[in-house]
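Take one protein record:
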Amino acid sequence: MKAIVQAGNLKLVEDKNFPDPVKDGKRPIVKVEYCGICGSDVHSWEIADRTKGLVMGHEYSGIVVDPGDSTTLKVGDRVTCSPITPCGECEWCKMGRDDLCPQDYYSPGTFFKEVPGAMADYMQLGKSAYVKKLPDNMTLRAAALIEPANIGLRACQSVNVEKGDKVLVAGGGIIGVMAAQFAKYFGASYVAMTEINHARAKRALELGVVDDVFDPTEEGVEEKINAKIDGGYRAGGGFTKFIDCTGAAAAINFGMNLTKKAGKVSLVGVNWKPVPLMTIVALLHQLTLVGIMSSPTENFDIILKAVSEGKFNLAPYKTKEIGFTLDEIQAAYEELHDPKNEQLKIMVKIGEGE
């Protein structure tokens, strides 16, 4: 089968003779239809000497060609799947935190070339228990967006966004915009975003998921923001919740400084390099900082239900669709590598389904 493989820093290759998945009677196999390019895929591609030989892709949809050991799946079912493969037996899994299971590191398309991902004609999924059938009113294209929505949901859950909260989201990429939408979904009274890319800022406003977008490099911007949040930290106000989706020191420090005393901070953005934080701000504000890397498998059901009921629209998040060719995919990675890019999600159409 055909697969797109990491070949070194900033380089992909096409392998037309990549081994087909082998039926093992346990792990289902799907014919991949759509695969999204995640920001973490781009970060991995940037330092691909660590993951050389890996077939990336953990945001996908497909059609079952082998149900494995599942008693509910059948050939032809339209599905998506949680990107993590928890064991179900460890202490974390038993306490409902299967996103912390050590087995998750061996999930398809993430870290190890021995477990290839969805940037291929076919893919063997982690476990049948985590495969989700699509509602009849959900397209295969939309289903490949469930995973990034999953992280946006988890970002809000990690700091317990609730009715009346004032939420700041740093970063207008797809995770930031989805986190903002979920903040609204959970009843936040005010949602603001910081973003230096004006095209992304404009799109976030057009989508209606934020009340305001601020350029943190603009002179006097803190005063403008503080006017919206009860005068800011020194006046006893501030954002009750702050979600960083950039992994950038400047954005994190800026956001923490605007967060109310005893506020909560969710660190979602990926950065493989050391990030210098103003810990004195966290101390003075007595903030709670939480990091997230994935999301419990049960969240897929929450999102599938919200989308199928029309409460969460995924369609606007796909901003570009490309074919399953090396040239197009390499170009897409290069585009997403540029911090000035305007994309939310580039989707690769691998199969023939819609």
